[in-house]
Give the backbone structure.
Amino acid sequence: MLRVQGKAVHQCDSGWVPVFVDQEQSISLMSVGFLLEKPDEAVVWRGPKKNALIKQFVSDVAWGQLDYLVVDTPPGTSDEHMAVVDALRPYSPLGALVVTTPQAVSVGDVRRELTFCKKVGLRVIGVVENMSGFVCPHCAECTNIFSRGGGEELARHAGVPFLGSVPLDPELTRSLEEGRDFIQGFPESPAFPALSCIAQKILNEAPVGLC
Amino acid sequence: MEEVPHDCPGVSSAQAGRGASCQGCPNQGICASGAGAAPDPAIEEIKERMKTVKHKILVLSGKGGVGKSTFSAHLAHGLAEDENTQVALLDIDICGPSIPKIMGLEGEQVHQSGSGWSPVFLEDNLGVMSVGFLLSSPDDAVIWRGPKKNGMIKQFLRDVDWGEVDYLIVDTPPGTSDEHLSAVQYLAAAHIDGAVIITTPQEVSLQDVRKEISFCHKVKLPIIGVVENMSSFTCPKCQKESQIFPPTTGGAEVMCQDLKVPLLGKVPLDPRIGKSCDKGESFFAEVPDSPATLAYRSIIQRIQESCSLRQPKGENLVGS
């Protein structure tokens, strides 16, 4: 999605070098995707092996000076989630952003994710409701394809902040597919204000001087 | 199983019990003795249990959120419309068990009988099993590592008394990990008809489907075909079509041609599908004339045809 598929990961004295996605080197990335010989290769690993790699990603990557480390996880409440919480615990993580779609079926699973956060002592920064409505490009009618309201209700039920709703936008999808910067390319998009607002809320969260 | 070391080499590895990371593990003695490498007796027990199950279908996806559970549920509904067809739906998504909600069975409980666990019956000919039925609250989280999830899957396959079943549909979580390996390994002796892989049209989803196909080849699991979900959206107001998840690389159609895997069909996005699932009702009953219903029915028919072409149970079919 960040247009760095096929790049290789190198070693330096202080560990693995993450891959920079932009000229300014403001965003770096580490993923098992960089360690595969072929992009279609399946990673058919059981829990323990996944846990070991996740631990390495936290401790053996030479991230350098970072303002934010964002960790994208798979769905669920299993090995990967426990491994990353354990690995990051010594570094006092800011917390978890929990993403859902509006429908009850999604909320039904995500409420368990919130229980996971509570059980492992991970603070929830807030809930984000994604794919929240689609504005038809032909007639501007907004259709709630995946229902509505679930994210906000979930946040209320769990007593955590609701950070916002991001509408469905095919241009956002297309940007991800083509590895373009959505924020730069589509400031007119309906998803743009939602995403910017959520980012701003997180920026307001972090206490100054936290390292 | 929290005591299993993080760098565990795996119980069936040559290093089992002998590696540096094995020191101090409570299972070290067992692994070092080679007992871990012996075949699990449950595999034979599951083979016995599966003798009354004619066709077994795994529903897989590379990515989450592509509509796998929705599809599994509606595959079950569609097959069970013929009251002479016995259908079983097994949900092995241990951390995110959505099947009870989608089938309108939330709050139901599992009972034990002399012959094993009884599935929860939605209809006389449609039985369902999920870890969701074993949880007391909708907020309960199943925070289990791989080995414990595998144990649950083993129990589901070995201890549930499905009875005489024409189709067992196994709904899986996204990915290619413990649950998928366990399902394939435990059913190894019982002959799986194949896998149906669900995707959306975008390249980001297809990339993961290619991995899923690679997984199927690796574990010799036949592929019945691919379903492209959320294919297009027709605005209810102006009736014009939009591609919400644009097929920037040709969608599932091109991928299936490249990888020589059947494309079973394309299901358009219909907001009423999500609503039906949220209410725990069959979309086919709610909206029988929707293009999505027609697409589903055609796909289900193709799956039935594919299953009837495969060898009957009892014969070992070498995977494709």
Notes: The longest strand of chain A covers residues 124-129. The helical segments of chain A are 47-59, 79-88, 104-119, 150-158, 170-178, 182-185, 191-205. Residues 95 and 123 of chain A are 5 Å apart (CA to CA). Chain A touches chain B through 58 residues (CB under 8 Å).
